[in-house]
Amino acid sequence: RHLLAASAVVSGGSLVISTNTVADFLVKQTSATAWTVTDAGAPVGAGSFSNVTGNVIITANGFDDIIEVDHQTFTAPRSVQINAGNGNNTVTVHNGKTTQNVQITTGTGNDTIEVSNMYVSRSTQINVGNGTNDVTITQGTLFGGLYVGSGTGDDTVTLGDGVTSLVISGNATV
């Protein structure tokens, strides 16, 4: 029996993307309810997905993963939820809006997280595990507040870039 390395399906309106090996995901929003998904440039599943009216859920599994979610100025119908797992991960969420939350979780490893040019209607939650982690949040408006949590290690959290506007409406906990 052959298990697919990466999969993507629309289930209950949510775009569910997962892998059991190293990920190099580029997830692009192409309209209000349509997305494309590639892994190292190759289409995942059907490659193009329509009728996405729920969350975008991405789960990786214990490798050094690269995950990029590019909204391309569109608004995601609900939340973007990313669990990159253990490993030295790079996660980027940028260029658009969500009507609910952005949630990013990583495990043990040296992770780089970037959220930029985003309008998040509810909370932004970033949880990085043990390791030397770099979290950068620039340009955008985060309603519902911001939470950044980490495990042990030397972590850096950068809010704003000194040039563009970053507005946090609600509590900020770092």
In short:
The chain is mostly beta strands and 174 residues long.
Can you write the helix and strand succession as a string?
A: EEEEEEEEEEEEEEEEEE
Report the principal-axis shape: globular
Largest sheet: 10 strands, mixed
Please identify the oligomeric state: single chain
Count the DSSP helices: 0
Q: How many strand segments?
A: 18
Quote the beta fraction.
over 45%
Helix and strand composition category: mainly beta
Give the mean pLDDT: 95
Commentary on this structure:
With 174 residues, the chain is mainly β. The chain is 0% helix and 60% strand. The chain has strands at 6-11, 14-19, 24-31, 34-39, 42-49, 56-59, 66-70, 75-76, 80-85, 90-98, 102-106, 112-120, 124-128, 134-143, 146-150, 156-159, 166-169, 172-173. Strands 3, 4, 5, 7, 8, 10, 12, 14, 16 and 17 form a 10-stranded mixed β-sheet that branches. Strand 4 (34-39) and strand 5 (42-49) form a beta hairpin. The N and C termini lie far apart (45 Å). The mean pLDDT is 95.
Keywords summarizing the entry:
single chain, about 170 residues, mainly beta, 10-stranded mixed β-sheet, 8-stranded mixed β-sheet, about 0% helix, globular
Write the layout of secondary structure elements.
Blueprint (H helix, E strand, L loop, with lengths): L5 E6 L2 E6 L4 E8 L2 E6 L2 E8 L6 E4 L6 E5 L4 E2 L3 E6 L4 E9 L3 E5 L5 E9 L3 E5 L5 E10 L2 E5 L5 E4 L6 E4 L2 E2 L1
Parallel strand pairs: 2-6, 3-7, 6-9, 7-10, 8-10, 9-11, 10-12, 11-13, 12-14, 13-15, 14-16, 14-17, 15-18
Antiparallel strand pairs: 1-2, 3-4, 4-5
